[in-house]
Each structure stands twice: as C-alpha cells, then as structure tokens.
TrEMBL record:
One of its GO terms (biological process) is tRNA processing. This is CCA-adding enzyme C-terminal domain-containing protein. Keywords: Magnesium, Metal-binding, Nucleotidyltransferase, RNA-binding, Transferase, tRNA processing. One of its GO terms (molecular function) is RNA binding. The keyword RNA-binding applies. Residues 5-127 form the CCA-adding enzyme C-terminal domain. It holds the Pfam family tRNA_NucTran2_2.
C-alpha cells in the first residue's frame, strides 16, 4: 500500500501542494459519492479540491460524470460549511454556551443541516439548542 505522506515528502513537494494532494487521496478513498457524503467532503476541504478529486474519481469510474455533485451542491446554496449556517457562535453564546462548546455545537448544527437542508433555519436551530440545554445528559 502506498504511503502518500512518505511519497510526497520524498519528492519534496511544497506543503501547500502536499495538503491538497492528501485531501484528494482522502476524498478518493471514499466509497460513497452520494449527496450527503459530498457535502461532508465539502465541509472539510476546499470546493476546488473536492471538484478536482471527483473529476479524478470519474476518470477512475467511481462516480457518474452526469452527477457533478460537488459543483451542483456548491451552486445550490445548500449548507455544507459552518459559515453557511443561519446561526453563528454569537447566537450560541447568547444561549449560554461556553466558548469550548460553541465549535462542537456549530459542527452538530452543520451535521443536522447536511442530513436535512431544511433545518438550516435560524429559529429551528436556536430551538434545537435550547431544547438540548433543557435535556439532561
């Protein structure tokens, strides 16, 4: 099995190039390319890297070219990144969440919105976190 990091280090690729290539390897190792998986990829990697990796995957016959899912998701306006959420850290801070909890809460909100794009509404997300606070652990 190819050790991608070792390979890239041996050929002295610049760090920025290594980072993009490793992200592409991670994406190409995905077994599913459905819309939710692609949104998760987009939440962790730049859109251009995901698009390029999916083009490579198509060349490797892993996905249907007509899908062009990454591009479709980016153009759809659906939420795939924390910065696209209709709530932000300040909203969660006003609900009483501590600084250490805010990032986890935003990641949780993103996961909810990837699963169901209709949940990316400010009031729905705020109600969700208010309910979470009232529910004992």
């Amino acid at each position: 099995m190819l050790d991608e990091k070792k390979f890239l280090n041996e050929f002295k690729y610049p760090n920025a190039v290594r980072k993009k290539i490793l992200a592409m390897f991670e994406i190409l190792n995905e077994t599913k390319f459905d819309i939710k998986a692609v949104k998760r990829m987009l939440s962790h990697h730049p859109a251009e890297v995901v698009k390029t990796a999916m083009d490579v995957a198509f060349a490797l016959q892993k996905i249907d070219k007509d899908g062009r899912m990454a591009e479709g998701i980016v153009n759809s306006g659906e939420c795939f990144h924390i910065r696209q959420l209709r709530i932000n850290g300040d909203d969660l801070k006003r609900l009483g969440l501590q600084k250490a909890q805010i990032k986890n809460a935003l990641c949780e909100a993103l996961a909810l919105c990837i699963e169901d794009p209709g949940k990316n509404e400010r009031e729905l997300l705020l109600r969700y976190f208010i309910k979470q606070q009232k529910t004992p652990d």
